[in-house]
Specification:
By secondary structure, the chain is of the alpha/beta class. About 40% of the residues are buried. Helix 3 packs parallel to helix 5. Helix content is about 35%, strand content about 30%. A six-stranded mixed beta sheet has the order 6-7-8-3-9-10, sandwiched between helices. The protein starts with a strand and ends in a 6-residue tail after the last strand. It has one domain: Rossmann fold (3-Layer(aba) Sandwich). The structure holds adenosine-5'-diphosphate (ADP) (2 copies). One adenosine-5'-diphosphate binds next to loops.
Length: about 230
């Protein structure tokens, strides 16, 4: 699904150059669940943002679903982002003055999905994330774990092929965090590709492969061994 070849990213601000990524090579297969780990500042978020078409790169090749992303203009990238990628962030990033149901519905508005279809899909997602009983609540009325469940709901409502999660449990206690990880694992079982940035080895144990970054370079890669049940 994803192929990065010799990707480099250089930030320039106030006369300072930071090489955030240096010659990164990475492949993600369809249906895979990949964790990206490494110390703060090693380039994890930059890598995730490039994969999510939220950020550009200076050098290298990025192929997403057989398409060279350097050939696309902003508009074409926006369409891919809306139709094919769901995002989950550490800080939930819900819209404060929209209800749970409205937050989840928002991506379908952007995709101009007809109203009746939107409502039907929102009900399905509320059910999937067990938030039907809170559909008219506002984010401030929810616990962190519930807010992240809504954020996952918003990410999956358009049935994206890929979910990108940046420290999805970073602001949650362990029970809420496990709940979110189980949701991501379940989505992956159902065929959604997941790429997650995390500091937590426990969270990474839900994935199938761990890539480690250090100073903008991939330093190791290993498969996660899942104990047989
Ligand atoms: P991580 O997610 O692993 O903590 P980041 O991808 O956020 O790392 O950052 C990688 C490096 O790039 C860091 O040195 C960071 O300071 C730098 N960086 C990130 N974003 C910017 C930016 N917008 N402008 C300048 N430097 C940045
Ligand atoms: P659910 O029915 O989905 O399990 P609950 O209503 O039982 O959710 O709440 C789960 C947790 O979130 C509880 O610990 C509850 O105290 C907390 N919580 C719910 N609403 C708020 C709120 N407005 N502020 C802070 N914590 C809340």
């Amino acid at each position: 699904m994803i192929r990065l070849h010799n990707i480099s990213k250089i930030y320039r601000s106030q006369g300072v150059e930071t090489r955030a990524l240096n010659d990164v090579d990475l492949r993600v297969q369809d249906g895979e669940f990949l964790s990206i780990m490494g110390p703060s500042g090693c380039g994890k978020t930059t890598l995730l943002n490039i994969i999510g078409l939220l950020d550009t790169y200076e050098e290298g090749l990025f192929v997403f679903r057989e398409q060279d992303m350097s050939l696309l203009d902003e508009k074409a990238k926006l369409i891919i982002r809306k139709e094919q990628i769901g995002f989950v962030f550490q800080n939930f990033n819900l819209i404060d003055d929209l209800t749970v149901a409205e937050n989840i519905e928002l991506p379908l508005h952007y995709l101009k999905v007809p109203r009746s279809e939107r409502q039907e899909r929102v009900l399905e997602v509320l059910d999937a994330i067990s938030m039907g009983h809170r559909k008219d609540f506002f984010p401030y009325q929810l616990s962190g774990g519930q807010q992240q469940r809504v954020a996952v709901g918003r990410a999956i409502v358009s049935k994206p092929a890929l979910i990108l999660a940046d420290e999805p449990t970073g602001n949650l206690d362990s029970a809420q965090g496990n709940d979110i990880m189980e949701m991501l694992a379940r989505l992956n079982d159902q065929g959604t590709t997941v790429v997650m940035v995390t500091h937590s080895s426990h969270d990474a144990s839900y994935s199938q492969r761990i890539v480690r970054l250090m100073d903008g370079e991939v330093t190791s890669e290993k498969k996660v061994l899942h104990a047989p049940f």
